[in-house]
């Protein structure tokens, strides 16, 4: 205000009408100064925020690189994975030994005969299901139940029992699903029987070579 009055000395008078424009001019100058200061502060804060964001981005990149290096080091120093254990065969060797002795070749032949007969029964079940006749399918499933129980083939026995119950309920959908499961279980049994026969043949060959003069 004093600066304005110094610039305009003629305003120093007792006339109030001349003081009002001076006050308005002073208020306008103060408003412009405040707006200019606010704009400068806004630009400064924007620059600071940009620098902070850049620093944070750089820190994140550095942290990611460090974590990647640690992961690579851990993977290099980690012990090799242990081989998975082989699945147990779908038959009990103890029961086979009690029934047929310790002759693996004989056991393999009997199990192969069982696989062939069971495959024929499953073919009969498939034919009965195509004709939508649950009673014959149930009877064939019961034969599989009896024979698999006698041989100690528990996985096949459990599936065949479920098929018998589905046959009593006349549930064609469940019978078809269990028929597919029985086919898969029989394939697993067939592979195990083949492995048993192969092992028995190798043992016999080694025994024959050892007995030669």
What can you tell me about this protein's structure?
It is a single chain. This protein is mostly helical and 213 residues long. It has two domains: 1-48; 93-203, Four Helix Bundle (Hemerythrin (Met), subunit A) (Up-down Bundle), CATH 1.20.120. The chain is built from seven helices and no strands. Helix 4 packs antiparallel against helix 5 and helix 6 (154-168) packs antiparallel against helix 7 (172-211). It is elongated, with a radius of gyration of 46 Å. The termini are far apart. Mean pLDDT is 75; it is low at 78-86.
The unreliable regions are 78-86
Total beta strand runs: 0
| Whole-angstrom Rg | 46 Å
Going by CATH, the architecture of the largest domain would be Up-down Bundle
Strand portion, in percent?
under 5%
Helix and strand composition category: mainly alpha
What's the average pLDDT?
Answer: 75
Distance between the termini: 130 Å
Number of domains: 2
Shape by Cα distribution: elongated
Major sheet: none
Might you state the CATH topology name of the largest domain?
Four Helix Bundle (Hemerythrin (Met), subunit A)
The helix-strand sequence is HHHHHHH
Helix content: over 70%
Per DSSP, the total helix count is 7
Please report the first level of CATH classification, the CATH class of the largest domain: Mainly Alpha
List keywords for this structure.
213 residues, mainly alpha, Four Helix Bundle (Hemerythrin (Met), subunit A), 2 domains, 7 helices, 83% helix, membrane, transmembrane helix, HPT_dom_sf
